[in-house]
Amino acid sequence: MKTGIKLLIAVVGVTILTAWTTNQLNDITKADWLVGTWENKNQRGSMYETWNKVSDKELKGKSYMVKEKDTIVFENLRLVQEQDRLFYIPILRNQNDGLPVRFIAKTISATQLVFENPKHDFPQIISYTKISTDSLVAEISGTKNGKERKQTFPMKRVK
């Protein structure tokens, strides 16, 4: 009898651990809706963000503006699944000495991704919210010079 109970507990434990691990490893798949090219139109023109799936554990992106025939890249982006954590890693031109900054995922769902780095100067929070298949809102927020700031970028899918 005791052996049967121990076996049952072991099977249940392994099942729970496997389900949890699979869920953790699949966090990045919840971000697949980012893949494509997104446009934010503003008074200075159009800004674009393009995301591509590199592997089961990484998406790569870039934020840029097209001016005449030139493409001006603002930042290169990576969304990376490392073990049980999901990271948003931007590299911005002329900031942080060109080094990547890591933001850890705090919210991961089929419609929202929220990343935080409380030690970063600004922003401390970066989020993407899926409105529909063809629209999303990207937002950066946090404190800068002692004041709360927020910038919102509504985007439409163009590819």
Question: What features would you describe in this structure?
Answer:
There is one protein chain. With 159 residues, this protein is α+β, with helices and mostly antiparallel strands. The protein has one domain (2-157): Lipocalin, CATH 2.40.128. Helix content is 15%, strand content 56%. It is built from 1 helix and 10 strands. The protein has one helix at 2-25; strands spanning 36-42, 45-55, 58-67, 70-82, 85-92, 103-108, 112-116, 125-132, 135-144, 147-157. The chain has a 10-stranded antiparallel β-barrel with strand order 1-2-3-4-5-6-7-8-9-10. Strand 3 (58-67) and strand 4 (70-82) form a beta hairpin. It starts with a helix and ends with a strand. Mean pLDDT is 87; it is low at 10-24.
